[in-house]
Amino acid sequence: MIFTTRRGVRRATRRNREAPLAMGYKHLLVHVDAGDRAEERIRLAATLARRWDAQLTGLFAESDTLGRSLVGKRSPQQFGKAAQRAAAAFEAIARTHRLETEWWQLPPGELDLGGVAAHYCRYADLSVLGQPDDDDGRVPDDFAAQVLLQSGRPVLLVPSSGHFEDVGRRVLVSWNGSREGTRALHDALPILAGAEKVLVLAAQTPPSRRADHAEERSHPNVVRHLAKHGIAVEYQPAYVHDGTVGASGVDVLNNVLNVSAEFGADLVVMGARGRTTVPFPLPSRSTRRKLRSMTAPVLLSA
User: Fold this and answer.
1) Are residues 7 and 144 located together in one domain of the fold?
2) Which of 2, 91, 185, 212 has the maximum number of C-beta atoms within 10 A of its C-beta?
3) Which one, of 5, 3, 274, lies nearest residue 142 by Cα?
4) 119 and 219 housed in the same domain
5) What is the DSSP string of 57-86?
6) Residue 114 near residue 146 (C-beta atoms within 8 A)
């Protein structure tokens, strides 16, 4: 494991000086590799780190295999050159944003790349990762899932296509009252506090099918709870029956995608689930779909 620290010049903005200390991330981590999408993630992570006057750590984690080959390996020299290119891109972008930085690098040959990376993500407030990309063999398909399920920290997943200059101005919260959804909601509080608009899309059973009104009463509580943090939200129920929403019959995830597009969300917040297996945990089917289907950045917590 390689650690390097570089301290840049930081100038706190008026907004950051006045913001409560608890309402901002102070250490962001971005996964860096030699792929084409790495700079997109770095730029977004740097923008967010600048917003909160946070340290930005680059974590180089990449497989040493040749594409999808199970036996072909890159030489240590090839791996080292890839790491150098990635570090140079990271430092150039961080320098432009005048950030305090660190560089962490996993050595070649890690068999459980996502699980090892997850240990280092535990020391960051938020980790910025890329969406699984079937066309890029540098990173295992389950990398983001393993970091999400094993790190115990929120993950900001950047889609594998599109440009995302900033996130957190118009935020859609996918809410169902679950433990994972509650975790994601509270992990996202620093972002929600600075958002221009927040829409809570609450999945619930239709009133005519409820045995009592406990569920109906529980969902508006999230509105009152966020109001105590100074966060005003719009609330939109999504009535779910047999896994589908409303007369359209679309499933819950597709409904989230549709509503987020209509709302113009630049960020979606939602929970994720996994199950404990040997040798490593596996994401649930719905979580696998979330990781692969999102077309806007999504903050996930498990």
Assistant:
1) yes
2) 185
3) 274
4) no
5) EEEE----BSTT-SS-B--HHHHHHHHHHH
6) yes
Q: How much is the pLDDT for 219?
A: 57
Residue 20 DSSP SS3: coil
- Check which CATH number belongs to the domain holding 222 and give it: 3.40.50.620
Identify whether residues 180 and 283 lie together within a single domain. yes
Residues 32, 70 within the same domain? yes
Helix ranges, the chain (H)? 14-18, 38-52, 76-96, 113-121, 143-151, 179-187, 189-193, 214-218, 220-228, 252-263, 285-293
Q: Are 68 and 185 in contact (CB under 8 A)?
A: no
Gap between the Cα atoms of 87 and 103, Å rounded = 8
Domain end position, chosen among 108, 137, 158: 158
In this prediction, residue 247 carries a pLDDT of 60
Last residue of a domain, one of 158, 191, 218: 158
State if pTM tops 0.90.
no
The answer as to whether 247 is a domain residue is: yes
Tell me the C-alpha distance between 161 and 45, whole Å: 16
Residue of 206, 286, 208 whose CA lies nearest to 246: 206
With CA atoms as reference, report the closest residue to 144 among 156, 162, 161: 156
In a domain, 164, yes or no: no
From CA 37, how far away is CA 106, in angstroms rounded? Answer: 19
Q: Per the structure block, which two tokens stand in for 282?
A: 């596996």
Q: Which two tokens stand for residue 165?
A: 């200059």
Q: What is the mean pLDDT of residues 74-101?
A: 96
Q: In terms of domains, do 109 and 28 share one?
A: yes
Cβ atoms 272, 253 nearer than 8 A:
no
Owner of token pair 């005048």: 98
Judge contact between 298 and 256, C-beta under 8 A: no
How far apart are alpha carbons 219 and 177 in whole angstroms?
Answer: 7
122 and 18 both lie in a single domain: yes
Q: How many structural domains comprise the chain?
A: 2
